[in-house]
Specification:
The protein is mostly helical and 149 residues long. The chain has helices at residues 5-21, 34-41, 45-57, 82-90, 111-126, 138-148, and strands at 61-64, 70-73. It has one domain (5-93, 130-148): Arc Repressor Mutant, subunit A (Orthogonal Bundle), CATH 1.10.10.10. The longest helix has 17 residues, at 5-21.
Length: 149
């Protein structure tokens, strides 16, 4: 299984924002911009816009419009579950599609049930981690992100 690029971008954006939140040298979190994210990760603005919009709808980030606009985390990193983020960005479709096209083995096959249980175990494991779990090396991440711009 491989996560969609969309999900990967969403996680990168959240890490970027969390690294700004963790910067004790600032008074408050610095607003990030689409351009910063694009430059840092070498991503297209179109893709980043879509992901940022989705993260905003999920109330994981707060967006501010205008000349000095941008976006910041809307929740504390320790309150953002990795399982929630990945499930929301991936969509919650079945990992095995047996009906379209119809698989002749379906009446006797155990694959769908086994894979469905594996998927739930995957999310149960990720439930143990939050965005804060990814920020153990926040100072190093900030340096890496700054170098990417």
């Amino acid at each position: 299984m491989q996560l969609k690029k969309y999900t990967d971008y969403g996680l990168r954006i959240l890490m970027y924002l969390a690294s700004h939140d963790a910067d004790e040298s600032q008074e408050g979190p610095k607003l990030a911009t689409i351009r910063e994210i694009c430059d840092t990760f070498d991503l297209s603005a179109n893709h980043v816009n879509k992901v940022v919009h989705h993260l905003g709808r999920l109330e994981l980030i707060e967006t501010r419009r205008g000349k000095n606009g941008g976006f910041v985390l809307a929740q504390r990193p320790e309150d953002i579950s990795l399982a929630f983020v990945i499930r929301q960005l991936e969509g919650d479709e079945r990992w095995i599609e047996c009906e379209n096209p119809y698989c002749v083995a379906l009446p006797a096959c155990e694959l769908r049930g086994i894979v469905a249980r594996g998927k739930e175990l995957f999310y149960e494991y990720l439930d143990q981690y939050t965005l804060k779990s990814l920020m153990v090396k926040a100072p190093q991440l900030r340096q890496i992100f700054a170098a990417g711009r």
